[in-house]
Specification:
The structure is a homodimer.
Chain A: H1 2-10, H2 15-22, H3 34-46, E1 50-53, E2 63-66, H4 68-80, E3 87-89, H5 90-97, H6 103-133, H7 141-172
Antiparallel strand pairs in A: 1-2
Chain A binds a DNA duplex (30 and 30 nucleotides) through helix 2 and helix 3.
DNA sequence: CTCTGACATGTCAGTTTTGACATGAAAGCT
DNA sequence: AGCTTTCATGTCAAAACTGACATGTCAGAG
């Protein structure tokens, strides 16, 4: 569905273009490499969700476009299929397991993540601002805003967790 | 690693208990059903990360405990292995694809998510508060706090997005 | 004219994940 | 004694995903 949606929002593209576009837009929420994208496009053509044009294109490129059926399928999925709210986030997982480390070790981890999410939030803020500028262009920047807010939340959490850990350490070892 | 960490933090458990425990604690960041947990425990026993005691237990239950090697492996993973920062988040994905819907359709989706994450944030706040009470018990509540912060961020985003969408709709159809 | 890099498409083996199917033991209720 | 629920463990086929391998085109630089 990520791929189909991307194809629709691009208004037609090649697998290669889609792969490029995947990293850089929805990459932050769902990843797919070209080895997943190419077979998936074939399947979608077979399912009638997507049309392909293989003719007269440089370097044997194929041009894909969504069919009406494909658009309808995506719409149905968005509106009628109950979302799977399971999230897979290794950083958050590590934050859970962090409680098994010593405070010193935990602080190292926290520092690394804090920095990472600070940068990520920064980048997403820029992206959101750029997208918000485009006047006619729908509300695609909602996605960037969400990414920004989640990254900021994680960054602030890491900061809070660091302070909390330092506080505890002082309490436990009052030299 | 999620499973191993959970086992360590429980200080030994059965596959069944681990499955229960999985949903309700790390569930929010990484999911695994029993059909994944049972084979994985067998593999970890083979790898020497975990010990099993099958004797004299009611209903044929098996009791698993982490070995020193298992603890060391988890610690190494946390401290030395570069985290995979790929995130899979269907809600965020849908927020990206939302831009392909009409404002009315988008509003329906947003309302649903807003409500869902409001509830989730509430539940996690309670969990965090409960965990924070336990005095000796490490800093396992860090995880609940992170979940709470992320859920809150999504909830607030949904609220913001709804307002933003309504604003636009009014601009475009000034009856 | 060669070489490098971006364009472009695939395959494949191995791992992970999902959802359905399957089985049985113990506890509690009526 | 029969019934239901919770405890408890598994298997299996199908789908999704990853990383490595493999191939070829075209444009621009030197």
């Amino acid at each position: 569905m990520a791929l189909l949606g991307l194809l629709i929002s691009e208004g037609g593209a090649s697998g290669y273009t889609l792969a490029k576009s995947f990293s850089g837009s929805i990459d932050h929420v769902w990843k797919a490499g070209h080895s997943q994208i190419y077979p998936e496009l074939v399947k979608m053509v077979e399912a009638g969700l997507v049309d392909v044009d293989e003719e007269h294109r440089p370097r044997g490129a194929k041009h894909y476009t969504a069919t009406e059926e494909g658009r309808a399928a995506l719409e149905r999925w968005l509106l009628e299929v109950e979302p799977n709210r399971t999230v897979r986030n290794e950083i958050a997982l590590r934050s859970f397991l962090m409680s098994l480390l010593t405070p010193e070790q935990a602080l190292r981890l926290l520092e690394r993540e804090r920095e990472h999410y600070r940068r990520r939030a920064e980048r997403l803020a820029e992206l959101r601002n750029a997208l918000a500028e485009e006047p006619g262009r729908g509300f695609g920047y909602f996605s960037a805003e969400l990414g920004f807010r989640i990254s900021t939340a994680i960054h602030e959490w890491a900061e809070w967790a660091r302070e909390e850990t330092e506080k505890r350490e002082e309490e436990n070892s009052p030299d």
